[in-house]
Amino acid sequence: MPPRKIIIDTDPGQDDAVAILLALASPDKIEVLGITCVAGNVPLPLTSKNARIVCELAGRPDTRVFAGCDRPLGRDLVTAEHVHGKTGLDGPDLPDPVMPLQDQHAVDFIVDTLRAHAPGTVTLCPLGPLTNIAMAFEKAPDIIERVAGIVLMGGAYFEVGNITPAAEFNIYVDPQAANIVFKSGAPLTVMPLDVTHKALVTKPRNDAFRALGNAVGVAVSQMTDFFERYDKEKYGSAGAPLHDPCVTAYLIAPDLFSGRFINVEIETRSELTMGMTVADWWRVSGRAPNATFMGDVDADGFFALLTERLARL
Ligand code: BDR
Ligand code: CA
């Protein structure tokens, strides 16, 4: 099979960074057409800088990086420096990027790319708030049926929320955008906290990154060292959850994940539960399924894949 063509839409973020590295380490499976940045973990100027830092770390300064929306569709931006640090990529000491940011707006790149490729050949991989994707769908509804699939990190059901008691960060930041995407009819595969909280960087897994013997391995271990202090304190968990790499790992090895094709709706009105992914896991609503909502991951297989792939960079 030829490599799957994807657009990564992202707000790096240490875990976004690892997701991007995994994709760039896997040209046999994944062709990254471009990386589109959105405001999320940190404001847009930082996410679009961090994405380029990561491309250069991977030795892929030829990757096209685009800046997109600097705020959610209808709300003030909420950021997550408390998790990711002031730069969004705290941990390793990486040089400022030399590679340029593309002139085109990320939303226009998404629209043009989907129109330029045959229908069903480009997969969207959102790793942050869904603002850019929703804007593209609103601006050019004709592209929706051209999307091969959307594989995204966001939401939660059994794990409920990480930014409010009810909501996961990416969906909470822009629930209106998430609502547009979840209602769009495009084939959706969702990696919620239910899965990503099982993908924990334990000490042996972190040691394995550091032992890879390349700059990427050291940087990834420093990123996860930084990132884990928050989750360890909050959940008492064994290490940092690698949320976003679940998306790119799924493209390479889908059998590592299991879930259900169910109805998932987004709460956009209640302040109390704003951004909640109301997932009909038990199929009690009678509403039509619109998403494959993952529930489990083979964590050892996931880390074996990640470590083996990152060694290639
Ligand atoms: C998601 O929020 C961000 O902090 C992470 O990068 C991930 O995409 C997890 O809730
Ligand atoms: Ca992210």
What does this entry look like structurally?
This protein is α/β, with parallel strands linked by helices and 313 residues long. The protein has one domain: Inosine-uridine Nucleoside N-ribohydrolase, Chain A, CATH 3.90.245. The protein is built from 12 helices and 12 strands. The protein has helices at 14-24, 44-57, 81-84, 106-116, 131-139, 169-173, 175-182, 193-196, 203-210, 215-235, 245-252, 299-310, and strands at residues 4-10, 30-37, 65-67, 122-126, 147-153, 188-191, 200-201, 240-241, 257-262, 264-266, 277-279, 291-297. The protein has an 8-stranded mixed beta sheet with strand order 3-2-1-4-5-6-12-9, sandwiched between helices. The longest helix has 21 residues, at 215-235. The site of beta-D-ribofuranose has 15 residues, from helix 1 and helix 6. The site of calcium ion has 7 residues, from loops.
What labels describe this entry?
globular, Inosine-uridine Nucleoside N-ribohydrolase, Chain A, 37% helix, two-stranded antiparallel sheet, 12 strands, binds beta-D-ribofuranose, binds calcium ion, 8-stranded mixed sheet, 12 helices, alpha/beta, 313 residues
Instruction: Write the element-wise H/E pattern from the N-terminal end onward.
Output: EHEHEHHEHEHHEHEHHEHEEEEH
Helix content: 25-40%
Class of secondary structure makeup: alpha/beta
What does the radius of gyration come to? 18 Å
SSE layout:
Blueprint: E1 4-10, H1 14-24, E2 30-37, H2 44-57, E3 65-67, H3 81-84, H4 106-116, E4 122-126, H5 131-139, E5 147-153, H6 169-173, H7 175-182, E6 188-191, H8 193-196, E7 200-201, H9 203-210, H10 215-235, E8 240-241, H11 245-252, E9 257-262, E10 264-266, E11 277-279, E12 291-297, H12 299-310
Parallel strand pairs: 1-2, 1-4, 2-3, 4-5, 5-6, 6-12
Antiparallel strand pairs: 7-8, 9-12, 10-11
